[in-house]
Amino acid sequence: MLGYETRKLEVQIGAFKGQVRALSDHMQFADPSGNAERAGICSASWSLFGQLWPASYVLAGAVKKIGIQGRRILEVGCGLALPSLILQSRGADITASDYHPLTQTFLDYNTHLNHLPNIPYLDLPWATGGAGVAGFDLIVGSDILYEPNHAQLLVGLIERIANPVSKVLISCPGRGHRNKFSRSMEGLGYHLTEQRVAFEEDELAPFKGRLLCYQREG
Fold first, then answer.
1. Going from the N-terminus, what domains does the chain have, and what CATH number goes with each?
2. Of 16, 24, 32, 188, which is least packed with CB atoms within 10 Å of its CB?
């Protein structure tokens, strides 16, 4: 027995049509070995990794069109890793990362479900991770600035793992912490361009959400 219930969701991003196994709802929780607790993941937030959020669809649509040639790419806080699946379907050099103990299980299942080669995975806590995994040209993430300390932690990680010439692409549904993150990224030499985008089908302009693109030329 898994200890949690799942469902399969139909997804379509451009020409990509596939399925993603997700948790059945937000009430799921199973941590028999205490791995999540040791990682600092409480029961209330345990199921968050296993949902397909609007920000993931927005980022997946963006990476469907982004240049991948010669780029080593990392998705941070990947959860169900829909953007990574899209990039893998394009033949990108993509690595997915998170720190939830079940992320890789779902990642491997979903790559096989969509008949894709395995996607390399990193257990990457932002506060301490990054040793030996530097050298990324493109770092992507969806809705990863929702806690007050995320901006500082993520900037520190990017400083350790990004190449001098690099891009960071984040889909943000309008979190207040993005301004702090943007100021810190400017301190690392990144220039921000942003695009207002809808995160819901019936959303009307001006949109609250953003696609944040940080570029550093070295």
1. 50-217 (3.40.50.150)
2. 32
Segment 10-35, tens digit of pLDDT: 999 999 999 999 999 999 999 999 99
Q: Residue 176 half-sphere exposure, CB side, CA atoms within 13 Å?
A: 2
CB atoms within 10 A of CB 203: 13
What is the dihedral sign for C-alpha 37, 82, 17, 171? positive
pLDDT classification of 207: cutoffs 50, 70, 90: very high
The span from the CA of 55 to the CA of 109, in Å, is 22
Tokens encoding 102: 């079940």
Tens-place pLDDT, residues 55-77: 999 999 999 999 999 999 999 99
Residues in CB range of 119: below 8 A, 6 or more apart: 81, 84, 85, 88, 94, 95, 96, 107, 111
Q: How many residues does the chain have?
A: 218
| pTM (predicted TM-score) | 0.96
Q: Do the Cβ atoms of 136 and 166 come closer than 8 Å?
A: yes
| Cis peptide bond upstream of 120, omega within 30 | no
| Cα separation, 91 vs 46, whole angstroms | 31
Residue 86, φ and ψ in degrees, nearest 5: -65, -45
